[in-house]
Amino acid sequence: MLATRNAGSRGGATVYRSIEAFLRYFEGVHRRALRDIGALPPEADGWRPATGEGERAWSINKLVGHMAGSRLYFASAYLGRGWISPPPPDVGRRERWLPALEESFEQFCGLVRGTPDSWLERKIAMIDGQGELSGWRILAMMTEHEIHHRSQIDTYAGLNGWEVPQIYNRAAEEIGALQAAERAKHGLSGEGHAL
Q1: Mean pLDDT, rounded, of the chain
Q2: Is the pLDDT of residue 166 over 90?
Q3: Judging by beta carbons within 10 Å of its beta carbon (0-12, 13-18, 19+), is residue 185 exposed, middle or buried?
């Protein structure tokens, strides 16, 4: 179950009330990562931006490995074992991308499943010693991190003219075409606005 903190908290952030609820949510995030990365063509293997430094210049291979490894980094922090980065998985070939993500998903779930729900509220010291985070916030950070890098890869795909899957199997143009009928259904006049 998901709940929302009262408006007086930092931004009305969402709090996960059970580890099982979080894992059900994260399974959907994981499936979308598999879908998008699985849709990449063979020429994506080894592709990297022409410019940039550090993370901004990583190949798609390295980004996929980073996504897989980061799940276990955040799991380590959540479990109170420190912000420890695991060795990166072998993603040197496109054929290893999906298995690496599947493996890290199973490892992550195995590590956090069965932990007490009270751990979602317990505080964990930040890696830099600059404060503490609740367990649920660490899990939210992991999810946001994953979505960030999936979006980075999707952006690279779009720039290269490769197919980018729709997140909910609906394009903005399709929703825009339905606006007039939706507005009429709710007693509103006019064509409406495209997304």
Answers
A1: 90
A2: no
A3: exposed
Q: List domains and CATH numbers for the chain.
A: 2-164 (1.20.120.450)
d(CA 178, CA 195): 11
Beta bridge partners of 3: 15
The CA-CA-CA angle for residues 180, 181, 184, to 5°, reads 85
Helix (H), strand (E) at residue 4: strand 2-4
Q: What does the block give as tokens for 104?
A: 């890290």
Residue pair 101/114 in contact by the 8 Å Cβ criterion: no
Residues with Cβ within 8 Å of residue 2, at least 6 apart in sequence: 14, 15, 16, 17, 21, 25
- Predicted local distance difference test score (pLDDT) of residue 142: 97
Q: How far apart are CA 109 and CA 146, in angstroms?
A: 15
Q: Rg of the chain's alpha carbons, rounded to an integer? A: 20
Residue with tokens 């408006």: 7
* Other CB atoms within 10 A of residue 143 CB: 19
* Single pTM value for the model: 0.87
pLDDT digits (tens, 9 = 90+) for 57-80: 999 999 999 999 999 999 999 999
